[in-house]
């Protein structure tokens, strides 16, 4: 197929099916066809890279020059960035065809994709089911085969959790592996962009494009990027996999537990050696995250003041009124909740009690992983506590929603890479196996995931 044919095929699917799922905020028909035509010309000249001409979508958190980038917020509903994110630029240089921007939770805050200003996303596995979040649009688009690959971001689970709930593959790389330049900030010490695709092999090809040092991102790490596809077929003989006992507690849904244990058996058949490990501070990861992430979000989102760019209220009376109303009208409820929690936790007098304490807990969580990786090469467990849940079932209880990320958040706090891959079904719905690796072990994670698939 030519790239133009492929692009048309996916554009048609989006046009006929996306009214059901609402996975896209923007579809770039015209520019996608132009990019596809250019890619076909590049292929004809024999100057094609592996992704030249392949359609994909960006989560609407990555700045795309000349194309609306909303972060699913009223605040940025009309924002057209004057520059590309580094990730966007790299896909362009590879000749990939950006077909649109996917829906998400507002400013990437959420686990169900119900907080988008552009309406909730529906999981293709069931009309009444959430796709997970915050990268729910990318995951739903993949599951409905509206697109073969999509970018996503993960601050506390937002790549892996929606991938698990929609039955696709999602990798959160090591913090610093993928540039954050032009990726709209939520919690800067946790945010990391990564690939979402059907398989680990596709994710490896995407990571080849996305990974690498960026001098324009101060936390980007200057380390060699291996060819992530080069080691996919290595065998798993002797690979040491740890099962954290805290991830398999008695209160874990028994069907979920059985399904993940069956997946681990498969890895064992492939040659892996399984042993128990302990991550004793796991229970502190959600509380620590929900101090640190809101604290950083309250600082990052202070730039949306109605003055420089983004939403501005009508007829402000004075500067104070301009700030207050622009922010009250421009942000949704969950974003406001986070800004208030974060501002409180950072205020004089509470800083030591909450923020500093959370940072100390973060170090304990990281140290748990460092100790575990002395004994094992990978850590395995469920990605989520349950399969996809019903729309609306957790929106009135933020704490229940926050607990959705109980298995994913600790890796962000530690800065480690982790993948979620489809591991069968529970109650007829997909569940994810999570594989967590040591720093910069994306190649090993992808290798194990590929062998499993
Ligand atoms: N669900 C988590 C939150 O709401 C994580 C979101 C994310 O990873 N962006 O903060």
TrEMBL record:
Active-site residues, as the UniProt record annotates them: 59 (charge relay system), 134 (charge relay system), 158 (acyl-ester intermediate)
Catalysed transformations (reactions): L-glutamyl-tRNA(Gln) + L-glutamine + ATP + H2O = L-glutaminyl-tRNA(Gln) + L-glutamate + ADP + phosphate + H(+)
KW Nucleotide-binding (keyword) present: yes
Pfam families: Amidase
Any one of the GO CC terms: glutamyl-tRNA(Gln) amidotransferase complex
EC numbers: 6.3.5.7
Signal peptide: none
Alphabetical list of PROSITE patterns matching this protein: AMIDASES (PS00571)
Subunit organization: Heterotrimer of A, B and C subunits.
Listed name of the protein: Glutamyl-tRNA(Gln) amidotransferase subunit A
Organism per entry: Oleiphilus messinensis
Gene (name only): gatA
């Amino acid at each position: 197929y030519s790239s133009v044919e492929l692009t048309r095929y996916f554009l048609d699917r989006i046009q006929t099916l996306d009214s059901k799922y609402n996975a896209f905020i923007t579809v770039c028909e015209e520019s996608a066809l132009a990019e596809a035509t250019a890619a076909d010309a590049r292929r004809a000249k024999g100057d094609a890279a592996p992704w030249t001409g392949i359609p994909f979508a960006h989560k609407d958190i990555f700045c795309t020059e000349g194309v609306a980038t909303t972060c699913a917020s009223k605040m940025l509903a009309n924002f057209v960035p004057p520059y590309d994110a580094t990730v966007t630029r790299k896909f362009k240089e590879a000749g990939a065809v950006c077909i649109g921007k996917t829906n998400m939770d507002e400013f990437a805050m959420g686990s169900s994709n119900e907080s988008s200003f552009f309406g909730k996303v529906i999981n293709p596995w069931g009309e009444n089911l959430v796709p997970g979040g915050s990268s729910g649009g990318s995951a739903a688009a993949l599951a409905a085969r509206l697109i073969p690959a999509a970018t996503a971001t993960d601050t506390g689970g937002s790549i892996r959790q929606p991938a698990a709930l929609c039955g696709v593959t999602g990798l959160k790389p090591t913090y610093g592996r993928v540039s954050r330049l032009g990726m709209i900030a939520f919690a800067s010490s946790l945010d990391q962009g990564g690939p979402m695709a059907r398989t680990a092999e596709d994710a490896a090809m995407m990571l080849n494009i996305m990974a690498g040092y960026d001098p324009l991102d101060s936390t980007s790490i200057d380390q060699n990027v291996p060819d992530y596809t080069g080691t996919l077929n290595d065998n798993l003989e002797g690979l040491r996999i740890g099962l954290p006992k805290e991830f398999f507690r008695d209160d874990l849904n028994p069907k979920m537990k059985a399904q993940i244990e069956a997946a681990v058996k498969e890895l064992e058949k492939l040659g892996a050696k399984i042993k128990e490990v302990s991550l004793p501070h796991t229970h502190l990861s959600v509380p620590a995250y929900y101090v640190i992430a809101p604290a950083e979000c309250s600082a990052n989102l202070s730039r949306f003041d109605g003055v420089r760019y983004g939403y501005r209220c009508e007829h402000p009376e004075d500067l104070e009124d301009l700030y207050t109303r622009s922010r009250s009208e421009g942000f949704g409820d969950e974003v406001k909740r986070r800004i208030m929690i974060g501002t409180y936790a950072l205020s004089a007098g509470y800083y030591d009690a909450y923020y500093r304490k959370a940072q100390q807990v973060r170090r304990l969580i990281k140290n748990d992983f460092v100790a575990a990786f002395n004994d094992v090469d990978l850590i395995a467990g469920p990605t989520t506590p349950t399969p996809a849940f019903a729309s609306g079932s957790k929106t009135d209880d933020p704490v229940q929603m926050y607990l959705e990320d109980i298995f994913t958040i600790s890796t962000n706090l530690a800065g480690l890479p982790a993948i979620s891959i489809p591991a069968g079904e529970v109650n007829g719905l997909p569940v994810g196996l999570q594989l967590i690796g040591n720093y910069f072990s994306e190649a090993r994670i992808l290798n194990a995931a590929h062998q499993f698939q």
